[in-house]
């Protein structure tokens, strides 16, 4: 996170100082990042308010630029600005979609998480981050190199963000229930599953010098367990990864990071594997 030099803040015109901007200011004060304000302005009515906000922030000592623009859709407008100004982090607020609408249309937040190459911080609350804990939610069931790299990135980013919140890092992973029909005997018995996942957790604890007492290993679906665990550990921020699933599977079930957005009561930072980031950037270049 300290390597982020520019933060894209997606403004909500309903607020004089949007929650996404409050988070961005907090992070920028620690990382010395520049701020870039974006109003997704389909009606062309927000230019003046963006300029007024820029002036206010400059008077507060922030390095800030911004614009009001629109390009085809909400998520495309955000991604175009992120690419144009080389922003290393995107921050926006989340608002729950109507369940029926979700069935018919992919929510804009989901599209942003899937197609934006940069990490995306979804702001869910206005709670003060000060002295709040950070939950790093990792999927240890996938041991492919790119997924291990993503797991390490989630933990290292979580540790960096405790420098912002002044809280502690908690590590969480979920493991599946035993299935007698599983081809791998490891997944036929609860004890062998737990031992396997505990060994993987222990490796991360050793690699990042984490406190073993702050590790949660639970059985069940991650999309249900992550919000509960975040509440239990007093997290103000949850760091997760996504493989940015698209196509039919994405339309029907979404990704874990997308599914938890409505139910979790913390802000959520979503990271992607490096190979997915590179593919998204190639796709964007091919469109231009």
Notable characteristics:
288 residues; single chain; 11 helices; 10-stranded mixed beta sheet; 2 domains; Rossmann fold; alpha/beta
Brief synopsis:
The chain is of the alpha/beta class and 288 residues long. The chain is built from eleven helices and ten strands.
CATH architecture label of the largest domain:
3-Layer(aba) Sandwich
What is the terminal separation in angstroms? 29 Å
Domain unit count:
2
CATH topology-level name of the largest domain = Rossmann fold
| Helical content band | 40-55%
pLDDT under 50 segments (min length 5)? 247-254
State which percent range the strand residues make up. 15-25%
User: Whole-number average pLDDT?
Assistant: 88
Overall strand count: 10
The profile of the biggest β sheet is: 10 strands, mixed
Multimeric organization: single chain
Order of helices and strands: EHEHEHEHHEEHEHEHEHHEH
- Which CATH class of the largest domain? Alpha Beta
Strand order of the largest sheet: 3-2-1-4-5-10-9-6-7-8
Structural class: alpha/beta
What form results from the Cα inertia axes? Answer: globular
Describe the structure.
It comes from Thiopseudomonas alkaliphila. Helix content is 44%, strand content 19%. It folds into 2 domains: 118 residues, Rossmann fold; 154 residues, 3-Layer(aba) Sandwich (Rossmann fold). It starts with 5 loop residues before the first strand and ends with a helix. The chain has a 10-stranded mixed β-sheet, sandwiched between helices. The protein is of the alpha/beta class and 288 residues long.
């Amino acid at each position: 996170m300290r390597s982020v030099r520019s933060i894209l803040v997606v403004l909500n015109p309903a607020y004089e100082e949007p929650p996404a901007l409050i988070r961005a200011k907090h992070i920028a004060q620690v990382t010395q990042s520049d701020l870039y304000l974006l109003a997704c302005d389909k009606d062309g009515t927000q230019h003046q308010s963006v300029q007024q906000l820029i002036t206010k922030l400059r008077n507060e000592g922030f390095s800030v630029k911004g614009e009001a623009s629109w390009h085809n859709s909400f998520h495309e407008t955000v991604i175009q600005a992120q690419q144009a100004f080389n922003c290393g982090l995107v921050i926006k607020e989340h608002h729950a979609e109507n369940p029926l609408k979700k069935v018919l249309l992919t929510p804009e937040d989901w599209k942003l998480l899937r197609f934006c190459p940069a990490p995306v911080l979804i702001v869910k609350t206005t709670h003060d981050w000060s002295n709040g804990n950070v939950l790093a939610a990792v999927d240890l069931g996938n041991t492919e190199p790119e997924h291990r790299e993503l797991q390490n990135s989630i933990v290292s980013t979580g540790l960096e963000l405790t420098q912002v919140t002044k809280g502690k890092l908690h590590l969480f992973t979920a493991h599946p229930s035993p299935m007698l029909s599983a081809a791998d005997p490891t997944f036929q018995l609860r004890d062998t599953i737990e031992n396997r996942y505990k060994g993987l957790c222990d490796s991360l604890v050793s690699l990042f010098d984490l406190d073993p007492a702050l590790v949660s290993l639970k059985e069940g679906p991650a999309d249900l367990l992550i919000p509960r665990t975040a509440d239990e550990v007093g997290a103000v921020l949850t760091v997760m990864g996504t493989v940015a699933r698209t196509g039919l599977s994405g339309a029907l079930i979404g990704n874990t990071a997308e599914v938890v957005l409505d139910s979790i009561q913390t802000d959520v930072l979503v990271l992607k594997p490096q190979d997915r980031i590179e593919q998204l950037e190639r796709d964007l270049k091919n469109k231009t």
